[in-house]
Design brief:
A hairpin with a 5-residue loop joins strand 2 and strand 3. The chain has helices spanning about 20-25, 30-35, 40-45, 145-155, 200-205, 210-230, 245-255, 285-300, 305-310, 310-335, 340-355, 355-360, 370-375, 400-405, and strands at about 80-90, 90-105, 110-125, 135, 155-160, 175, 185-190, 200, 235-240, 265-270, 385, 390-395. The chain is built from 14 helices and 12 strands.
């Protein structure tokens, strides 16, 4: 892949005393000056004090500094890199083509404002008009799509330890037996400003770093890709992860108005309504909706009572019904709960989550993700994975840290930390 050319402008600083020193050398001797001028004239003729050094420019928010505005990237279009490979999936041999390149995103005058990087995998010998085509991306917002690419969807993936840990070097790739390439062609796309996707300059980049600009950029990328590769007649799909699910909804709406409809949209770690996962003092909905997931995670780690472990489908139906009825009513009732009603809710929450009643009482009946993942296996000093509850590991902050054990409630009018989200990946 060609390197990205950065055009940096350099400024020369002038020493504050240099001008004054030069002026001093060109002046006549003091005696001659006294003979030629009156005291008043002498006073007015004295050299001005050296100029004060201008105050240092403060770095801009985000650490870019004032010079970051001058960063520019080469927007010259270049041909993509194309290679050919073979893969065995489910007993079938697949011959496929990998294409890595950039597509230009232009303004109405035709000026290139950004280039979006992609890696496409297409099956050789397939009839393009009938072959499904899936555009996939991670979320963030602000994440490249390397995670879906090299961890889930691509024909090759990174080799990890069985429990998901990074192995010791040297690092390796392996054939991905779970790639959907046997069913659909894949195009993995990086959002502008991530991976190898770049705006023409940082000022232009601001146009794409919002909900509408981001969706329009992906929409224009898809339109241009299916045009240049003659895939208008292919069945089209979107696959978005985390914020990519929000983006998928926006992109689908943007493109349907331009004659491009999708045959299906796959949403991984869905977040279409942020109130469903952002726990705040004014929003109890997230506590209600995440409770069934807590129950299934507790079951995986054998933290539920035996009667709940016998039929997990029935258990899930039970907790979903209770969360939508009795638990919802209890949270709405708040301090009006009688002591007996409060204890009954605490007991049910402890039964469905595997957490201690004392912790639930201290959390005021509201268990967010951080509290649950830290305390479910607290007796083993292990934390449960925030994005995948099957994973466990030691607490990187130290298990006794108070903010990890029972996080303080969110400040009024402000959302709780991102770690309280259940499905929105920080990818």
């Amino acid at each position: 892949m060609r390197s990205i050319v950065l055009s940096l402008s350099l400024a020369l600083a002038v020493l504050p005393g240099a001008a004054a020193q030069q002026q001093k050398k060109s002046e006549p001797a003091p005696a001659a000056k006294a003979a030629e001028k009156t005291p008043a004239q002498e006073e007015s003729a004295r050299p001005a004090p050296p100029p004060k050094e201008p105050p240092a420019e403060k770095p801009e928010a985000g650490g870019g500094g004032p010079r970051s505005k001058e960063l520019k990237w080469d927007m010259t279009e270049q041909a993509p890199a194309v290679t050919h490979h073979t893969l065995k999936v489910h007993g079938k041999t697949l011959n496929y083509t990998a294409t890595a390149g950039r597509l230009p995103i232009k303004d109405p005058t035709g000026k290139i404002e950004a280039e979006m990087f992609y890696v496409a995998y297409t099956l050789d010998g397939a009839e393009a008009s009938r072959r499904p085509l899936t555009f996939a991306f991670n979320g963030g917002p602000g994440s490249a799509s390397i995670w879906l690419h090299m961890g889930a969807l691509g024909p090759r993936k990174v080799v990890l330890e069985p429990e998901g840990w990074m192995p010791a070097s040297p690092y390796h790739l392996m054939d991905n037996p779970d790639t959907p390439l046997d069913q659909t062609d894949l195009v993995l796309v990086d959002a502008i400003g991530t991976g190898f996707s770049r705006p023409a300059d940082l000022e232009t980049g601001k146009k794409f770093w919002g909900l509408r600009g981001d969706a329009e950029a992906f929409g224009e990328f898809i339109r241009l890709y299916i045009t240049r590769n003659e895939r208008w007649s292919s069945p089209l799909y979107l696959l978005g992860e985390s914020y990519g699910t929000t983006r998928s909804a926006a992109v689908a709406g943007y493109l349907i108005d331009r004659g491009i409809a999708f045959n299906g949209i796959i949403l991984l770690s869905t977040v279409l309504d942020f109130e469903t996962l952002a726990t705040t003092q004014r929003n109890d909905e997230a506590y209600i909706l995440t409770l069934p997931s807590f129950t299934m995670i507790a079951a995986y780690h054998k933290k539920l009572a035996p009667e709940l472990m016998q039929d997990l489908a029935r258990t899930r139906a039970e907790v979903e019904k209770w969360a939508a009825t009795d638990y919802t009513a209890a949270l709405a009732k708040g301090d009006a709960l009688t002591p007996e009603e409060r204890q009954a809710v605490i007991a049910q929450l402890a039964r469905f989550t595997g957490l201690k009643p004392e912790l639930i009482d201290q959390a005021n009946l509201r268990i967010d993700v951080r509290t649950f993942t830290h305390n479910l296996l607290g007796d083993e000093k292990l934390r449960v994975g925030r994005l995948d509850g099957r994973y466990t590991g030691p607490d990187p902050q130290g298990f006794l840290r108070r903010s990890s054990t029972i996080p303080p409630g969110p400040r009024p009018g402000r959302p709780s930390p991102r770690s309280s989200m259940t499905t929105c990946a920080a990818s």
